[in-house]
Amino acid sequence: MRLNHNLSSLNIYREYSKTLKANSKALSHISTGEKVVKASEGPNTIAKSERMRLQIRGMQMSQRNVQDGISMMQTADGSLSSLSSILNRVRELVVQAGSGSNNDEDKEQIKGEINQMLDGYNQIVKDTEFNGVKLLSVEDEKTMQSGANSGESINITFKDLSLDKVGVLNPDNSVDSDKSLKKLREELDLSKPEDISKALEIVDAASNSIIDLRSKYGALSNKFESTFDNLGEFEASTQKCESRIRDADIAEEMIQFTRTGVLIEAGNAMMVQSNKFPQDVLRILENVRSR
Prior knowledge:
Elements: H1 7-32, H2 43-97, H3 104-127, E1 129-130, E2 133-134, E3 140-145, E4 153-158, E5 167-169, E6 175-180, H4 181-186, H5 193-246, H6 250-274, H7 277-290
Antiparallel strand pairs: 1-2, 3-4, 5-6
């Protein structure tokens, strides 16, 4: 029994401090829902978790990019459908102009309607855009980031469908300026049989260009949709793995919190008892002095 150092009380206090720290840690895990709050609690664990979170955030943003790509392709497809309908009507009018029963006034009216249809065609080409990006009036290529990592992207090629950019192609795939929709609108005389044949050739070539582009955009839209579905599955799997690593088991933490809480109360009670030991020494000394 010692007077200067109450070793029993010091030992109890040391264990009490450890228990108090464990209780605070369990409470922190319960309140945050994470079993690794600070990097010091699990350096390797938090490194894995943070890398997964980077991937998850990247995949979430990529899904938004892909959704924008789908919307862009749907916008382009809607306009291409309208252009195709216009050219179908123009072709009907050209064939009608080739009828030998038409007088000069009839042919002028047909030519006027063709010009109006082609003006509407050109207006659609100029006005079709998505978030300020021209879709049918520029020769361009855009890169859409479709994944969380470098190199995961999809290229979108835009084609200029203006009146002077669509028509019969030369061997080098450039548009023959004498056989373009612009030439059809401005100079072709539908009263001449040779111009009727030339007009049909131009309209058919333009229709084929639009059909090909619409087919490519349709395939690209399907690619965006499949990419979106895959990204959703990858994100869900990664979040599940990250949850196993980072999220706290609340039931387990509650057990730890309750256990340490009982030990803290027991430690307080024991320290009260152990702090009475010096008083016992004093009582012994008092008995010695009284003798």
